[in-house]
Amino acid sequence: MKTFYWSFLLMLLPSMAYTQNTEKENEFTMSMQIRPRAEYRNGALTPRDEGVAPTSFINNRARLSMDYKRSDLELKMSAQHVGVWGQDPQIEKNGRFMLNEAWAKMNFGEGFFAQLGRQSLIYDDERILGGLDWNVAGRYHDALKLGYANKNNEVHLILAFNQNNDNRTSGGTYYDSSTGQPYKNMQTVWYHYKADNVPFGASLLFMNLGLETGDKAMDDSHTRYLQTMGTYLTYKNSNWNLDGAFYYQMGKNKAADKVSALMGSIQAAYAFDQTWGAVASFDYLSGDKGNGGKYKAFDPLYGTHHKFYGAMDYFYASTFANGYAPGLMDVRIGGRFRASSKVDMELNYHYFSTAVKVQDLKKYLGSEVDYQINWSIMKDVKLSAGYSFIRGTKTMDAVKTGNHKSWQDWGWLSLNINPKILFVKW
């Protein structure tokens, strides 16, 4: 048996040497992430009523990622287990370990590439398409991405078609989005321009979403198409970081309403030095009064909403109540302080209002204060903590439920351990 083993290896040596000489440089990377986060919720996501007790839990992400790369090919596979401490029994027979990423990228030269499979779609500042890394599971799409890039220009075409299973032989292609992706099909074009002599960048986005409606039992499907288009502009020098975005929506939503909605944002951040910084921003997302011929509430779709509209996730990360879609105006003022190379913190104040009036109530929804501190304990290990509170109004009660007289706050503590455990070149 040993003789056969060594003979087989000797037979392989010429082919191995040939591969080493003809293939371009190969890289293999493996990384791990353990990210537990303890939360105290006393009115997060949705305001609480008077007398409702707070809740606490610890969620966790355990992720293993592998990436293979050479000049013309890259493959990534990432698997994760997410949940709450205590959710699974000690003796677990049906685990929830699943692939969150599984894609291949082929580079054809001259800047052209194709990437297909389960992947995150992260564009611009993540207002429309974001990775949602704050969420314990993240956000991923099953898609084909075709692209081209050179020094100043980059363009992507993203195509997706979703189905619940492959055991149908006839009867149409009804798609139940409640058990899968929130859309049946998607076609997106994204273009980015980066200037040479000034720190300026501009992006254009056009997205066509096919949203499924109909009756599964009757094999009756109707696909409504919603279009989102807009631009994102940036200017950044040594002290200033300016950006703005404008998007418009048209077409039809799942309820077959004709849509005419818009959103706009502008942000200015200034770094006084390496220690202190300040930021101010304004966001507007149009709302619907419920009495017009067109639906005017803007849907920010698959963005990272936690990043923009307050850390307590009252808006777009969670839904409005009682059928309201009042939109949002958000004025933010914040500051950043870097105590050392390992410790930084930030404090933000949000002034929330509806974009349209709700009944005979004022537009003012309430004010939120968010604080966060980050400490790099050691290489690949970061400890973060945050605390937020919000003071609402009667308008908040109407569109989000709860009691604005009740104290609403939220606190969390997270440890992110994310080392690269293997890196090989050959």
Brief sketch in words of this structure:
The protein is mainly β. The protein has helices at residues 2-22, 394-400; strands spanning 27-42, 55-70, 73-84, 98-109, 112-119, 141-149, 153-161, 185-194, 200-215, 220-236, 240-252, 258-271, 276-285, 328-338, 343-353, 364-378, 381-392, 408-417, 420-425.
Tell me what the structure shows.
The chain is mainly beta and 426 residues long. Helix content is 7%, strand content 53%. It is built from 2 helices and 19 strands. It has helices at residues 2-22, 394-400, and strands at residues 27-42, 55-70, 73-84, 98-109, 112-119, 141-149, 153-161, 185-194, 200-215, 220-236, 240-252, 258-271, 276-285, 328-338, 343-353, 364-378, 381-392, 408-417, 420-425. It has an 18-stranded antiparallel barrel.
Shape: globular
Q: How much helical structure, as a percent, in the residues?
A: under 10%
Order of helices and strands: HEEEEEEEEEEEEEEEEEHEE
Roughly how many Å is the radius of gyration? 25 Å
Unreliable spans: 1-6, 8-21
Beta fraction of the residues? over 45%
Structural class: mainly beta
So how many helices? 2
Query: How widely separated are the two ends?
Result: 30 Å
| Major sheet | 18 strands, antiparallel, barrel
Name the average pLDDT.
Answer: 92
**Number of extended strands:** 19
Distinctive features:
single chain, 426 residues, mainly beta, 2 helices, 19 strands, disordered N terminus
Write the layout of secondary structure elements.
Blueprint (H helix, E strand, L loop, with lengths): L1 H21 L4 E16 L12 E16 L2 E12 L13 E12 L2 E8 L21 E9 L3 E9 L23 E10 L5 E16 L4 E17 L3 E13 L5 E14 L4 E10 L42 E11 L4 E11 L10 E15 L2 E12 L1 H7 L7 E10 L2 E6 L1
Antiparallel strand pairs: 1-2, 1-18, 1-19, 2-3, 3-4, 4-5, 5-6, 6-7, 7-8, 8-9, 9-10, 10-11, 11-12, 12-13, 13-14, 14-15, 15-16, 16-17, 17-18
